[in-house]
Design goal:
Strand order of the largest sheet: 1-2-4-3
Number of strands: 8
CATH topology of the largest domain: NADH Oxidase
CATH superfamily of the largest domain: NADH Oxidase
Helix content: 25-40%
Largest sheet: 4 strands, antiparallel
Strand content: 15-25%
Shape: globular
Number of domains: 2
CATH class of the largest domain: Alpha Beta
Radius of gyration: 19 Å
Number of helices: 9
């Protein structure tokens, strides 16, 4: 259903421009922001930017594509919240691995309260590597988060008992392998630490000064940050395995959309989310996760859910590239 008069071309292209800017706020592996946008009168195109791919940790581009899927979901949500009806074609060009999605709008329609609320959470959502507090996440909240992933083409399998023990071992093993790989250490050193004048990567003030006390170790960046590590031990945290039916680029893109959807839903519910990607980067530990799914699908990311300590100072936001750096070929055409 479309409300109001036929939209004008300049109005549509401004909507695309705004959606591209909002898409740039999405989470991405090591804050690489590996996407490019092209907005014209005929649509908004999302492409992978291979210059910001983790060539060592992510040679297939799985995490790059998941990151771009999160950006796609952010952009679509921005259009919905602004009262547009977006349509999307995923993997629109079989000849190009970099062409990930083509968005068009088919008219106007009032946003739902849910769409507006989730859109508002885009600027609230953040990554906090510190421990969660002792209170458990309500079961109903976890179910709503799981359903958000399902609604976007992915599954979210809760890990408990022996699987949780195996996850802890796998995460520690992934850290060990990564730290002992000279090429991966070099790559991580490039993307993590310092003040990030390039406006990409993870700044020191988002990395704890010492390893937080958790049942499942987070990524070991090989260097301390400047963030206070927090207090307590994240015993009450819940771990979920985000998975998709297949393991092709289209599945990776869907996984990113599901990641964005369930993360924004969690933020709306007051639940903190920490993605753990190191355990899926290493083939031997990814295979451990695959066995946990018992044939249900392919692992994309591990997500930690918990309640953040309300007395802790907020984590500083990660830097973002300006819009002119994430457009193709460097500038969005004007109407």
């Amino acid at each position: 259903m479309t409300d109001g008069p036929e939209p004008q071309a300049d109005e549509v292209i401004e909507a695309y421009r705004r959606a591209a800017e909002v898409g740039g706020r999405a989470p991405s592996v090591h804050n690489t922001q590996p996407w490019r946008w092209l907005a014209t009168r005929t649509g908004l195109e999302l492409r992978a930017d291979r210059s910001r791919q983790l060539r060592v940790a992510d040679p297939e581009g799985r995490l790059l594509t998941i990151s771009c899927g999160a950006a796609l979901h952010h952009a679509l949500l921005a259009l919905h919240a602004a009262g547009w009806v977006p349509q999307v074609v995923r993997m629109p060009d079989a000849r190009s691995a970099d062409a990930l999605a083509q968005i068009t709008v088919s008219g106007r329609q009032a946003a739902t309260a849910q769409q507006r609320r989730l859109f508002d959470e885009i600027d609230v959502r953040h990554t906090d590597r510190r421990p969660t507090i002792g209170h458990k996440v309500p079961h109903d909240a976890l179910e709503l988060i799981r359903q958000a992933a399902v609604n976007h083409g992915a599954g979210l399998h809760r890990l408990a008992g022996p699987d949780l023990d195996d996850l802890a071992v796998a995460a520690a093993r992934a850290n060990e392998i990564g730290l002992n790989d000279a090429d991966q250490r070099t790559e991580m050193d490039y993307w993590v630490g310092g003040t990030r004048p390039t406006r990409t990567g993870v700044p020191s003030d988002a990395v704890p000064q010492s390893p937080p006390q958790t049942d499942v170790p987070g990524r070991d960046f090989g260097r301390p940050g400047t963030l206070e590590p927090g207090h307590g031990h994240a015993h009450s945290a819940v771990y979920g395995l985000l998975f998709t039916p297949g393991d092709q680029p289209g599945d990776w893109l869907r996984a990113g959309e599901a990641l964005s959807a369930c993360w924004l839903k969690a933020t709306d519910l007051g639940v903190a989310v920490l993605p753990l990607s190191s355990v899926v980067e290493v083939p031997v530990t990814r295979q451990i996760l695959h066995r946990m799914l018992a044939g249900a699908g392919h692992p994309m990311l591990v997500l930690r859910f918990g309640l953040a300590d309300p007395d802790q100072a907020p984590v500083p936001g990660t830097p973002r590239l300006p819009a002119e750096r994430t457009t193709w070929p460097g500038q969005i055409p004007q109407p």
